[in-house]
Amino acid sequence: AQSVTQPDIHITVSEGASLELRCNYSYGATPYLFWYVQSPGQGLQLLLKYFSGDTLVQGIKGFEAEFKRSQSSFNLRKPSVHWSDAAEYFCAVAPGGGADGLTFGKGTHLIIQP
Amino acid sequence: DSGVTQTPKHLITATGQRVTLRCSPRSGDLSVYWYQQSLDQGLQFLIQYYNGEERAKGNILERFSAQQFPDLHSELNLSSLELGDSALYFCASSANRFGTGVADTQYFGPGTRLTVL
């Protein structure tokens, strides 16, 4: 069965600083990987996804992620964070093939310092 | 706005009761998924329906059931409720292009917050 690990429960970053959120997955085949963001009291919004091809994927709100098969990682990055980026971030993996229940990591809570 | 709607937004009920959560997928999406988000378990996949048929099951309890209707809306039924069932329940939908072997993007609704007292 697939699994996702987000090693950092909380991360604090100063506004304007760069950000990297870590995600490691365990899956036997080619994974389909996602990053979602959840603001307080809100649903989940898709930031970006990796299905195949270029291992560096661009998403919304200035986020990008890099798929590294050798490290089983799919880390999320942003060059300069804004106070509005404060939220919970979830990495997820899907098995594909039509039965696509997502397996989520536990999430990383991002705090932005002024 | 993802285009996925869920009702009600909040639900407060007592132990032992039964509730029904409703989800309308994005226009044209054939697959509906249900997820539970709780503090101790995190986000867990419960069940997936595709065009009216059950497609995949996750960590769904026997007390819980779901269905998808001909108009593609879905309902999640939770019965014999326990305190531990208090959680945020999300519905998601996707186009789900079967035959391609590719996972489709899931779009999430705003959720239903269930409180069991």
Strand percentage of chain B lies at over 45%
Main pleated sheet of chain B? 7 strands, mixed
Distance between the termini of chain A: 41 Å
Order of helices and strands of chain B: EEEEEEEEEEE
Helix percentage range of chain B: under 10%
End-to-end separation of chain B in angstroms reads: 31 Å
The largest inter-chain interface, given as chain pair and residues per side, is: A-B, 26 and 32 residues
> Segments of chain A where pLDDT lies below 50 for 5+ residues?
none
Cα-based radius of gyration of chain A, to the nearest Å = 14 Å
Work out the strand percent of chain A: over 45%
Share of helix of chain A, binned: under 10%
What does this structure look like?
- The complex is a heterodimer of chains A (114) and B (117).
- Chain A is globular, with a radius of gyration of 14 Å.
- Chain A starts with a strand and ends with a strand.
- Chain A contains no helices and 12 strands.
- By secondary structure, chain A is mainly beta.
- In chain B, a hairpin with a 2-residue loop joins strand 5 (42-50) and strand 6.
- Chain A binds chain B through residues 32, 34, 36, 42-46, 49, 51, 90, 92, 94-107, and chain B through 2, 4, 31, 33, 35, 42-45, 47-48, 50, 55-56, 58, 90, 92, 94, 96, 98-99, 101-111.
Describe what is shown at a glance.
Chain A is mostly beta strands and 114 residues long.
Note the main attributes of this structure.
heterodimer; A: 114 residues; mainly beta; six-stranded mixed beta sheet; four-stranded antiparallel beta sheet; 12 strands; 51% strand; globular; B: 117 residues; seven-stranded mixed beta sheet; 11 strands
